[in-house]
Amino acid sequence: MKSYEVNFDGLVGPTHNYGGLSYGNVASQSNSQQSSNPKEAALQGLQKMKALMDMGFVQGVLAPQERPDVAALRNLGFSGSDAQVIQQAAQQAMPLLVASCSASSMWVANAATVSPSADTADGRVHFTAANLNCKYHRSIEHPTTSRVLGAMFADPQHFAHHAALPAVAQFGDEGAANHTRFCREYGEAGVEFFVFGRSAFDTRYPAPQKYPARQTLEASQAVARLHGLKDDGVVYGQQNPAVIDAGVFHNDVIAVGNGEVLFYHEDAFLNTEQMLGELQAKLSKLGGNFQSVCVPRALVSVEDAVRSYLFNSQLLTRADGSMLLIVPEECRANERVWHYLQGLTASGGLIREVKVFDLKQSMQNGGGPACLRLRVALNETELAAVNPGVIMTAPLYDTLTQWVHKHYRDSLRESDLADPQLLLECRTALDELTQILKLGAVYPFQIN
Ligand code: SUG
Predict the structure, then answer these.
(1) Residue 250 CB–ligand 1 contact under 6 Å
(2) In this structure, which residue's CA is closest to atom 6 in ligand 1?
């Protein structure tokens, strides 16, 4: 049976802004308080989705969340009408209002961890929503994420959904950003590679000194258990704590994998040789041939990798089996990275082509091409069971583009977040969106 890796991209929400909310994420910190352009952000994302669809890849779309999250503000003690809740928060605790307005759900690589049916004990595709509990503004995403994923992958015969792990730092889970799968064909059993930043219970594992390690080993192990993965189909690797301290807050900022290939930076991991050996051995037991492409620090420093987001690229398999790398414009702007990429594609290896996308609005908050997509490997039957409303088509692209033009502002600053009109604009837009994507009622304002 034919199988596909479908990229579901997060649609940027109408409150996209630069809140400076992510300590340890260099771009988020350095662009704090700048004026954002939500309309441009959403259009840049849609253009990437359309381009991939035009190249022949199956492309999906994942809806943004209701922001400001008035219910979250009520949980923190603000009361009265929705407008009063927002006004009180603006007067008494602006950072909480900013957090409740974040459009961070756009980075859907953090929405969930997904295991394809070929890997799981019950032969269904498993999803575990990420608790994202390292940052308050992201920790409020998972209830709506679960409802949206439930509406997209509704058929219980093919899809199993798990609630987020316990909301404590010991089970800090950032979803697919720290998870890669290696396989020969998407529909065949593969090796799932979980990368963690620290262990919550075992002091033998080192931890970063400066910035938080968002993903714990224990969270990754719990996800593997929930999904019913075999020990032979799982490898755990630890991120090098030094790169977390250099701004690599998720593993997908320093490594990307696809098919049988891992593309990574020399400094990305601890115990790299042993980890690569285990990946190689486990994939070969499944008939695969694991290959790795290491980018030496002498050619691209960790700092250049963080600044350019070279590794936050999408590594895609083309029809002829060769691979294509989707990178952000920032890679072309960095002389060393661009030089490396030109050498890479000219070398006759597996990665033959690089395509550049302008995703500046998202990049300024630390979200590159790979952050914006959640990969779901599906066979033909499973793909047919996905809610067809979320699969990108030329007419859907046109509809969503018009929808963005109709509802989104082209400038947003912190002071605009207190405007009660913004809440109404967002709810009007999202209500229309659930109809466009045929999701049913998924947002708190539609349910309560
Ligand atoms: O969690 N930025 C996100 C970026 C997530 C990128 N995702 C992956 N690497 N997969 C984060 O740090 C910044 C929001 C702000 O500052 O307004 C933010 O949440």
Answers:
(1) yes
(2) 367
